[in-house]
Specification:
single chain; mainly beta; 11-stranded antiparallel beta sheet; 8-stranded mixed beta sheet; 51 strands
Length: about 550
Amino acid sequence: MLLGEAQRKIETYDIIPDIGELPEKKPKTKMELTNKRTRNSTRFINPDGSFTEEIYNQPIFYQDISDKKWKRIDNTLKKSPLAPDKFINTANEFKSIFAEESDISKLVSVQKQGYNFDMLLVGARKVKSVINNDQIIYPDILPQVDLSYVVTNDKIKESLILKAPTGQSQYSFELKIPANLSASLLANGNITISSQFGDLLWILEKPRMIDSNGIYSDNANFNIRKEGNRTFIDISLDTSYLNNPSRSYPVTIDPSLQSTLLIRDTFISNRYPQSSYSSSMYMHTGMTPSYGVTRSLIRFALPPLPSNSRITTATFQAYQTNTGVSNTTVDLYRLNSSWGDAVTWDTQPSAAATAESSLAPNTSNAFWVWYITKLTQDWYNGVQSNYGLMLKNRDESTAPWASFTTKENTASYVPKISITYEVDPIGLEDFWHRTEDGINPSNGNLILTEADFDVPGRGIPLTVERTYNSRNTVEKGVFGYGWSSNFDARLIYGVSGPVVYIDNDGTRHFFGESVDGGYIAQSGIYLNLSRQLDGTLSLLLQIKRQRLPLIIKDAFNRFQI
């Protein structure tokens, strides 16, 4: 059992190793390899020569277009250098621009990937905003209504705050979008904003209502309305909820503008079996006063690991806040089917029958940490599709519930996976050293290669090439243990999650998941991987902007080009 996380300053340092991940000299302290960052992960080299990948359940970094370096996201709102009457978020892949003073003609603009659109609250009064770090509030923008925006790492949280009953059950925003963008209302109640090429840029999440006592209702809905060439988004609210004598004001109406799809966390409730809570700042397990029995679901986008990585330890951590928790055991399960942001109790994914890990620390305002080494190994080796994991109270009837912060909360307390691994250089990669005798001095692996024959032809030539790795004693190729050949090259993958490519010389290359979908190769691996409509994968070798097909076998032993 592991509880909490050591709070110490981590030294940041651009250090060799670069591509091959074999350090010439081990560091004295844990060091961050800043050139190995992705949007939601970073890499550390440890004093023993191993590496640790820290994977967050929200984007932590953005790529600066000026120098292509990954830098930490900063959501602080500051005065725009181009428009002194506007505020702008400091550093992220998208720009959110807010008017210092609201009126019917200006409020909020969003820019991403060269596209932009504006949103205006219909009937907005001219009021001066109040800035608090990453939040901007327009007080009394409508009678008895405040409007709040909070910029997070991957979304803009919009909240209409009804301070008292207003007698109004509908609020409207004008959506000003150019001709190269379109808005669509989905069956699940979300609104999508896409480019003319079909690229999904943003999701307006179905609104919900919650009062000051935490009593929740999802009886709030979007509608897209057209008036000539103008587009409006109407939010319709359930009057029986608003006018209930037991309702405790203020009531917050919370539709959020989200950009990231693959990363998600939420909880499900048996009291509201058809409600989803993907925009909640907390997720729960066990019997709660407001939601009945609850369970939490989390899915990470898993980044690429260096070639021939061997995972030794992996943990999952989440920040628990309920001060009344005691004698509560929370079990962690691997999930065996897919789910999305709109998941509910009635549509919850299937989970393994046996818990992967269990924890009962009885602490609050602290990280709870579960070991998930076997699950993580299975994700990266293609044994288990990455559907994420479930947290569930062992006693769902009488034990106190637990509450964990989600990716909607501050970045300091978001869920995280830490993977520690070693790199064992087996194969003929250019970034690994070997002597003239074919020995890799870092691990003593003896490498021998043979080309048995080569029959040219009009199309692809018929060749037989084989490689012997003395340390590769686990896998048996067509020529026996230790031998790999072009007939053994293959992809190993599940329905979702990382993909393993075992090449002709026995090297295992790990493709990770992009937070926006698709696959990412480790730096120095010039391969492009994409999933086809029929579920098979296409692997292309990229050489000087050319993409050449590779003949490989997939996990079902089918040859693919």
